């Protein structure tokens, strides 16, 4: 951002600056008001999931690709960071960056074949990739130790500073989550973000206007999986353990629910969705084992009450929601539903041949 651009921003948006400043002040002072260690860890878990929700929203909400394999890249980042630190003695900053870039490489490799198929097959391919990763992590005993996982992952360390307390990890993870939000905010409001939205709305029209559709889809895949890998590194060093059961299909569905609840195409909505879906099951601990059931019920209520999500008030969010359900309908073989309902009348599936409609015979009557 240039000096003149920054000056115009500060002059034209004082209310936004006041809100941002107040929010940062609250986040910095929050540890002083957290009553116990359990609540502290719940807050950190929310912060870890914020980049995941933002990444899912970038891929699905802004680009229109329905993917359900985000947990695999989450797991790739977690295992990469833990293995580099524990077995190769790499510093945590190096392991953190490597976790994101390794997940990004796998995302790009998966993105190339996904771009050659339709949106419904893309969803199935991402589900398949997630299941492949889960099975490999569960059975590769020499590398991942299978279902026993990798215990004893050390806390993050930057030089002499060790983040071995909840308060230190809170501030470290908060800075990373804020950087992720600023990155996504800048990306989605740049020419890249406008191109992604154009691709979501109509790929043919976007291609006609000179947008390289495949390139921008791959770019969204790369950035989304990059931040999923970063979140995986944060999780591994927060829990001090990495196991394959964390990175199942249910986790991918959980990330999608965060984006839908907050509002597809809304970055603040992703943050809110992560906060609600992560914290509520922890607050009502007896209901935790029914988490997926309650989340599903919450989605049904939300679709009836506010289909665009809690914070999806803009036209872009409504458009992203409509595109999402169109892709979901194609996945389950209901491509003709929208066209039939939009006409307001029944459209027969068969019609008479033109030779019978325009007969050359005499007209009776």
Describe this entry's structure for a reader.
- The chain is an all-alpha fold and 365 residues long.
- The protein has a domain at 38-248.
- Helix content is 71%, strand content 2%.
- A two-stranded antiparallel sheet has the order 1-4. It has a two-stranded antiparallel sheet with strand order 2-3.
- Helix 5 runs antiparallel to helix 11.
- Residues 334-365 have low confidence and may be disordered.
Walk me through the topology.
Layout: H1 3-12, H2 14-29, H3 37-62, H4 70-87, H5 92-114, H6 119-139, H7 141-144, E1 150-151, E2 157-158, E3 161-162, H8 166-188, H9 191-201, H10 203-208, H11 213-239, E4 241-242, H12 249-262, H13 267-283, H14 291-305, H15 315-331, H16 337-343, H17 354-357
Antiparallel strand pairs: 1-4, 2-3
Helix pairs in contact: 3-8, 3-11, 3-12, 3-13, 4-5, 4-6, 4-11, 5-11, 6-15, 9-11, 12-13, 12-14
């Amino acid at each position: 951002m240039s000096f003149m651009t920054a000056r115009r921003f500060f002059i034209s948006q004082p209310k936004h600056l006041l809100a941002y400043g107040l929010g940062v002040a609250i986040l910095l002072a929050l540890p002083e008001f957290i009553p116990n260690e359990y609540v502290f860890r719940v807050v950190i878990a929310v912060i870890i999931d914020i980049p995941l929700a933002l990444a899912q929203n970038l891929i699905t909400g802004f680009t229109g690709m329905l993917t359900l394999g985000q947990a695999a890249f989450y797991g790739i980042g977690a295992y990469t960071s833990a293995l580099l630190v524990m077995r190769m003695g790499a510093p945590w900053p190096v392991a953190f960056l490597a976790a994101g870039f390794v997940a990004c490489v796998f995302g790009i490799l998966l993105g190339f074949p996904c771009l050659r198929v339709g949106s419904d097959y893309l969803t199935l391919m991402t589900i398949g990739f997630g299941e492949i990763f889960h099975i490999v992590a569960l059975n590769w005993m020499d590398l991942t130790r299978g279902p026993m996982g990798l215990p004893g992952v050390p806390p993050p360390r930057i030089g002499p500073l060790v983040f071995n307390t909840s308060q230190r990890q809170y501030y470290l993870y908060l800075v990373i989550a804020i950087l992720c939000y600023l990155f996504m905010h800048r990306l989605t409001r740049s020419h890249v973000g406008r191109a992604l939205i154009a691709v979501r709305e109509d790929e043919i029209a976007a291609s006609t206007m000179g947008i390289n559709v495949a390139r921008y889809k791959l770019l969204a895949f790369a950035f989304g999986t990059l931040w999923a890998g970063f979140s995986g590194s944060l999780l591994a060093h927060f829990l001090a353990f990495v196991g394959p059961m964390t990175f199942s299909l249910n986790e991918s569905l959980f990330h999608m629910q965060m984006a839908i609840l907050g509002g597809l195409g809304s970055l603040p909505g992703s943050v809110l969705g992560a906060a609600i879906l992560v914290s509520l099951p922890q607050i009502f601990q007896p209901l935790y084992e029914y988490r997926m059931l309650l989340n599903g019920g919450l989605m049904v209520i939300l679709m009836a009450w506010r289909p665009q999500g809690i914070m999806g008030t803009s036209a872009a969010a409504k458009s992203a929601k409509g595109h999402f359900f169109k892709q979901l309908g194609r996945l389950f073989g209901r491509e003709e539903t929208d066209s039939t309902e939009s006409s307001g009348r029944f459209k027969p599936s068969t019609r008479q041949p033109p030779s019978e409609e325009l007969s050359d015979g005499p007209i009776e009557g």
